[in-house]
Design brief:
With about 260 residues, the protein is α/β, with parallel strands linked by helices. The chain has a single domain, classed as TIM Barrel (Alpha-Beta Barrel). It has a five-stranded parallel β-sheet, with helices on both faces. α5 links the parallel β5 and β6. It is globular, with a radius of gyration of 17 Å. The mean pLDDT is about 95.
């Protein structure tokens, strides 16, 4: 069974003590590849170091997380944009809107969102979107790009049926499903069965939002398998079928080559 964790911060300090073991556990669990979204200018070096250590398995993205956007966002973006052009990045991310933590920076977030969408369009890359309590603003931005080739994923999708239908209507955006899918109070059991099957991706958002039965503890990329099982249960499909489906979806969105394990 081959899986892809499409959203994993395995480069952050939470894994400094045992990163190699965490990666090995993921690979042993069938999680062949980890897609690494950036956070801010300070996280670039650690992210690139991990991707360079495992170039076939840990694939970099570059973007400025909305929680790190402020009035000086253009200065913060300069080294991120430089890294985007200097390395084989697969996406612009993680970018978007967060009005739970950053309502006071809303206008700056919108400006940074537009700028980074521009990066993606110029380079024909997908965007990886963080959306928290900000669907209305996010849709207002994306509605301005419906006549472009913009594509991407709503990472950690937590919307309801109405939001899912709006995302599906764009035609070129996927749904990133992670640990929240396993939460009893997450509400996604009423949403996931209705999502377009060709646009479902698996993710962990490690080290955050660990799935049941690890909720409240450090999340790990190996737990992609737990998310896959929950999605399979909700779709009433075999786990192996969900693995094949979501891997194909990720490879298509991010234009990833098929993975061939290195010889032992």
């Amino acid at each position: 069974m081959a899986l892809i964790d499409t959203h994993c911060h395995a480069y952050v300090s939470a894994f400094d003590a045992d990163r190699d073991a965490v990666l090995r556990q993921a690979f042993d669990a069938g999680v062949d590849r980890l897609l690494l979204p950036n956070i801010d200018a300070d996280s670039v070096d650690a992210l690139l170091a991990l991707s360079q250590a495992h170039p076939d398995r840990c694939l970099p993205m570059m973007g400025l997380h909305p929680c790190h956007v402020d009035a000086d966002w253009e200065t913060h973006c300069a080294p991120i944009l430089e890294a985007l052009d200097a390395h084989p990045c697969i996406a612009v991310g993680e970018i978007g809107m967060d009005l739970f933590r950053g309502r006071q920076t809303r206008e700056h977030q919108i400006a940074a969102f537009h700028a980074q969408i521009g990066w993606a369009l110029e380079r024909d890359l997908p965007v990886v979107l963080h959306v928290r309590e900000a669907f209305e603003d996010t849709f207002a931005v994306l509605d301005q790009y419906t006549d472009t080739a913009l594509r991407g994923v709503f990472h950690c999708f937590t919307g309801g049926r109405a939001e899912a239908e709006k995302v599906a209507g764009y035609g070129s955006f996927c749904f990133g499903l992670g640990g929240v899918t396993t939460f009893k109070n997450g509400g996604l059991d009423q949403v996931v069965p209705h999502l377009p099957k060709d646009r479902i991706l698996l993710e962990t958002d490690s080290p955050y939002l660990a799935p049941v039965p690890h909720r409240g503890k450090r999340n790990e990329p190996a737990y992609t398998a737990l998310v896959a099982q929950r999605v399979a249960d909700l779709l009433e499909r075999p786990l192996a079928e969900v693995a094949i489906l979501t891997t194909a979806n990720a490879e298509r969105l991010f234009r990833l080559p098929a993975f061939t394990p290195a010889a032992p």
